[in-house]
Design a protein that fits this description.
Number of domains: 3
CATH architecture of the largest domain: 3-Layer(aba) Sandwich
CATH class of the largest domain: Alpha Beta
Radius of gyration: 24 Å
Bound molecules: thiamine diphosphate
Strand order of the largest sheet: 3-2-4-5-7-6
Shape: globular
Helix content: 40-55%
């Protein structure tokens, strides 16, 4: 074994020092000869190395780690196929505004363009799906450029960065005093922007004059850790709140300002709609689902998102929590002419909400066999606690859960985000359980989604990361099947979307986890309890009715 002289440091050790300075305590990786010096550096810096079975999982886990911890995640993969395998994970983080760094190996600079093993133009491939993508040109610059990549992750709305480190750059050693090794907390500024003060005053005015306001608390409320400010805001001004993405759980179910099922009604009837930290993308019907008569305010970290796809009346760029706190403060000194009518408005929405809930309840309690997916997600919703981090990874089954499962705490809801990537589940569970070992992690999978990256269940076993996996098994890619059958008829509607009747519970046991099969809805709850008690990574294979679809799937809302 060759060790650098004491006053020398190698590229891999410089990477590890820069990760440490960023507060990162784990990398997710799949090995390759191009990157092993980073592992050696991690050992010295006390950074854990979680090695997975597919690079896509490493990248999704880095994304998930960022969402849970508020720190950037890091995945390290080898050159060529290692890096291409991770592309989906980076792309998902890009659309979800999740800060992470992917480090890819690269052939030696000395063999540049000579056809070295696993050589590809990684930076060109990564540029459109990252905020920053670069080659590290010399060993001296390794830590400096890693810290630059982290800085770039937080420019505007957060997102991923990519670095490739040529093998000779990584493996070489340089005198320590020649390398810039940025120190923790000294190489980037705070990103908390308070918003234009004039715009905040206008928002305060709009609020106190509004009789029928509503607010949509999107993912950036969680990203910016603006939960408390958002809660104070809705309480101080008596504003009904809807939540989406990672913003779910900002208010717990049962809170007087927590609304979910009356959103369409509110967006039609409101006189003031405040959209916080979520774009007018397909999940919002590109803004078309908001009343044309309402005054629309949009708050976002990214200047480019505000006013995109739909006209707005007031746009504010900055940190969700800071802006909501300043608006509430600015409103507190004003005469609130809308206050009395807002009370009635809240009652009106509560009535709509209750009616919608009662209409659906019989489905949620259905004793049908095969199991109605509504019953499965109802049981999950009843089972989770304020310490359960809920993950959805699938098509139709996750659309059902989006209607029924309500996280009980902020930051306890994870879904892929607007890229709609199947296969995030095991990786998100890995990151969540690693980062929050005292929390329970429950992931609902479609059988199709689980199959994409399910081998990493073994990683969960190997690293002793217990979680409860529930597979809504309909032996189909049902969300696709619905639209296909509607368009081409039942026979042709079956082409390319049929899966085998796979016993995922047996798969779990094969890999050393806990597994159970459920056919009777009355058995769902006891099976969930046993999975909780097992203390192991678990898969409960629940056979759900393949001929029942979620309303969102039947309306094909995602394409409208
Ligand atoms: C990586 C990826 N591939 C394909 C799709 C397209 N897609 C969306 S939903 C879906 C079906 C998912 O099936 P499953 O996870 O079993 O859930 P189900 O719809 O059957 O409940 C597919 C293939 C996607 N979103 N992501």
């Amino acid at each position: 074994m060759t060790e650098p002289a004491p006053d020398q440091i190698s590229g891999g050790h410089l990477v590890a020092k820069a990760l440490k300075a960023e507060g990162i305590d784990v990398i997710f990786t799949l090995c390759g000869g191009h990157i092993i010096d980073i592992y050696d550096g991690c050992v010295d810096e006390g950074i854990d190395v979680i090695d997975v079975r597919h690079e896509q999982v490493a990248a999704h886990a880095a994304d998930g780690y960022a969402r849970i911890t508020g720190k950037p995640g890091c995945a390290v993969v080898t050159a060529g196929p290692g890096t291409t395998d991770a592309v989906t994970g980076v792309a998902n983080a890009f659309r979800a505004e999740s800060p992470m760094l992917l480090i890819g190996g690269q052939g030696a600079l000395s063999q540049h363009k000579m056809g070295s093993l696993q050589d590809l133009p990684h930076v060109d491939m990564m540029t459109p799906i990252t905020k920053f993508a670069a080659t590290v040109p010399s060993t001296e610059r390794v830590a400096d450029i890693v810290s630059m990549a982290f800085r770039e992750c937080y420019n505007g709305a957060p997102g991923p960065s990519f670095l490739e480190i040529p093998r000779d750059v990584l493996d070489a050693s340089v005198p320590v005093e020649k390398a810039r090794i940025p120190e923790a907390g000294r190489y980037r500024a705070s990103t908390r922007q308070a918003g234009d003060p004039d715009a905040i005053e206008r928002l305060a005015d709009l609020l106190v004059h509004s009789e029928k306001p509503c607010v949509l608390l999107g993912s950036q409320v969680w990203t910016t850790r603006g939960t408390d400010a958002a809660i104070d805001f809705v309480r101080a001004l008596n504003v009904p709140a809807y939540m989406n993405g990672s913003g779910r759980g900002t208010l717990p179910p049962g809170d007087p300002h927590h609304f979910q099922l009356s959103r369409r009604y509110a967006f039609n009837e409101a006189d003031l709609i405040i959209i916080v930290g979520t774009p007018f993308d397909f999940r919002m019907g590109y803004g078309k689902r908001l009343s044309r008569d309402a005054t629309v305010v949009q708050i976002d970290l990214d200047y480019r998102t505000v006013g995109k796809n739909r006209d707005i009346d007031l746009g504010i760029v900055g940190d969700a929590g800071l802006i909501l706190a300043s608006a509430a403060q600015a409103a507190s000194g004003r005469v609130d002419t809308g206050a009395a009518r807002r009370k009635e408005w809240i009652e009106e929405l509560r009535a709509v909400e209750t009616q919608a809930f009662e209409k659906r309840l019989p489905r949620q309690l259905s004793a049908a066999q095969p199991i109605d997916p509504y019953r499965l997600v109802h049981e999950i919703n009843e089972f989770i606690t304020e310490d359960t981090i809920y993950i959805g990874d699938g098509g139709d089954i996750v659309t059902f859960s989006g209607q029924v499962v309500q996280p009980k705490s902020p930051g306890h809801w994870m879904d892929p985000g607007p890229l709609g990537t199947l296969g995030v589940g095991v990786a998100f569970a890995m990151a969540a359980k690693y980062a929050e070992p005292d929390k329970e992690v429950l992931c609902l999978f479609g059988d199709g989604a689980f199959s994409l990256t399910g081998w990493d269940f073994e990683t969960m076993v190997r690293f002793d990361l217990p979680f409860i996996g529930v597979i809504g098994n309909n032996s189909s890619m049902n969300q696709i099947r619905y639209g296909q059958a509607a368009k081409y008829g039942n026979d042709r509607g079956r082409v390319g979307n049929t899966l085998g009747d796979v016993r995922y519970d047996e798969f779990a046991r094969l890999l050393g986890g806990h597994g159970e099969e459920v056919r009777d809805p009355a058995d769902i709850r006891p099976a969930l309890e046993r999975a909780r008690e097992s203390g192991k990574p678990a898969l409960i294979n629940v056979w759900v009715d393949p001929d029942v679809y979620a309303p969102g799937t039947m309306n094909q809302t995602m394409y409208k």
